[in-house]
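Let us work through a complete example step by step.
Step 1: write down the sequence.
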Amino acid sequence: MSDHLPPEPLWRDALGERLRRLRHERGERLTDTADRAGVSPQYLSEIERGRKEPSSEMIAAIAGALDTTLIDLTLGVADDLRSVQGVRTTSIRGAFALAA
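Step 2: predict the structure and record it as tokens.
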């Protein structure tokens, strides 16, 4: 048995995957969502691929463009991270600790 655990996924990777999934569920192209959020399609693509670490203001703008709230997006990302790690955290404080 190995003492090494697999590395935890990065917040930016989980955020990007969640944003891409939300965008695809809406049937939107990068340019559609990016235009509404006020960012370039290239920048949104880099966020979705986990290449950029966007500011909270940028995350809020993209969340709004996808008709979701920052809190719902954050909780969704936290749920995704928990499911990957198999960790059960029931408090909202725990969800925000993952974002920090």
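Step 3: interpret the result. The two ends are 31 Å apart (CA to CA).
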